[in-house]
Amino acid sequence: MWGRVNDELAAGLEVLALRQRLLAQNVANAETPGYKRYDLDFARALEAALAGRGPAGGQAAGWAAGAAGTAGTGGAEPAVAAAPATGAGGAGAAGAGGVAVGPAVPGGRLSLGVTHPGHLPGRWAPADPAVAVYRETGSSLRNDGNNVDLDAEMARMAENGVHYQALVRQLSDRIALLRTVIAEGRR
């Protein structure tokens, strides 16, 4: 009943929320010596969020597939190995933290088993969109090694917010349409 389009809109919102957290982390660490900014490839993250690898087992498979091929060019490295730890923002090997990237459980989720022909097959679990997170390591704007440009980060946050609001509006309009159909069906 929910539908493919609504699932795609929800996945887009999830990816945009992840990007907003990454950008906020960059702003919070604008003065941290040696900190390198994080961002994500939206198209790749959305593809990962929409790609199912099997019933309820997609996160581990999606993470492994993304981790194998995330090395970028131009001074960007995958955040898989260099992801900051969650916490209050203490500096670590990858800089100050605040965003967890990657699966919480190394093995992912348990797969959903269908034991009777009358059972519903279940939903395909999406792969983890965090596979598209990367860390820009090839540049430094300051002598202390930090590469966060506060003005550019704020502009990216504003752009991300506009995209998020557009998807929220589309999803809201689709839900309003469903409500109208339900209300008119009662008459």
Characterization of the model:
- By secondary structure, this protein is mostly helical.
- It has one domain.
- The protein is built from five helices and seven strands; from the N terminus they run αβαβαβαββββα.
- The strands form three sheets. It has a three-stranded antiparallel sheet. Strands 2-6 form a two-stranded antiparallel ribbon.
- Strand 4 (91-92) and strand 5 (95-96) form a beta hairpin.
- The model is unreliable at 53-73 and 80-108 (pLDDT under 50).
List the topology elements.
Blueprint lengths: L3 H25 L9 E3 L1 H9 L1 E4 L2 H11 L7 E3 H4 L8 E2 L2 E2 L27 E3 L6 E4 L13 H36 L2
Antiparallel strand pairs: 1-7, 2-6, 3-7, 4-5
Helix pairs in contact: 1-2, 1-5
Structural class: mainly alpha
How many E strands?
7
Which parts are unreliable, with pLDDT below 50 for 5 consecutive residues or more? 53-73, 80-108
Radius of gyration from the alpha-carbon trace, in angstroms: 19 Å
Q: Per the principal axes of the C-alpha atoms, what is the gross shape?
A: elongated
Strand neighbour order, sheet with most strands: 1-7-3
Task: Give the N-terminus to C-terminus distance in angstroms.
Answer: 21 Å
Number of helices: 5
Helical fraction equals 40-55%
Mean pLDDT: 72
What fraction strand?
5-15%
Instruction: Give, in order, the helices and strands.
Output: HEHEHEHEEEEH
Quickly count the domains: 1
Largest sheet: 3 strands, antiparallel
GO cellular component, one term: bacterial-type flagellum
Family: Belongs to the flagella basal body rod proteins family.
Protein name: Flagellar basal body protein
Keywords: Cell projection, Cilium, Flagellum
